[in-house]
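Module 6 notes. Inverse folding takes a fixed backbone as the condition and produces residue identities as the prediction. Think of it as a translation problem where the source language is geometry and the target language is the twenty amino acids. Below is one complete input and output pair. Work through it position by position during the lab.
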């Protein structure tokens, strides 16, 4: 069982905190909201909301939200599928990753 499937997670409270942090521009909170709406964690799955949050988070130029946004374009999650744009975003994430010397962790 993954932590996000655990009964002890209070998704309503988590969403409130992430919304507050997102309103202050924290990319990780925006990205987490995208995951919550993509996966339907404590909410009804909403592809358009997930895409909106991934798109906002990707403005930070961080690898994980860039990868989530690429996956959204590749699969058509909340947006018209566009493999060329997905490839561009993946390449952009590769450049950021190589410049930062970091590996991303994405679920």
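Target side of the pair, the amino acids:
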């Amino acid at each position: 069982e993954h932590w996000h499937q655990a009964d002890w997670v209070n998704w309503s409270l988590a969403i409130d905190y992430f919304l507050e942090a997102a309103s202050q521009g924290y990319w990780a909170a925006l990205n987490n909201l995208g995951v919550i709406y993509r996966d339907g964690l404590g909410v009804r799955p909403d592809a358009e909301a997930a895409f909106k949050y991934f798109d906002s988070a990707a403005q930070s130029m961080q690898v994980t939200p860039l990868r989530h946004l690429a996956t959204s374009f590749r699969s058509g999650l909340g947006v018209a599928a566009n493999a060329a744009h997905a490839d561009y975003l993946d390449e952009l994430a590769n450049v950021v990753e190589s410049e930062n010397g970091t590996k991303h962790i994405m679920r």
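Reference fact for the lab report: Residues 83-100 form the longest helix (18 residues).
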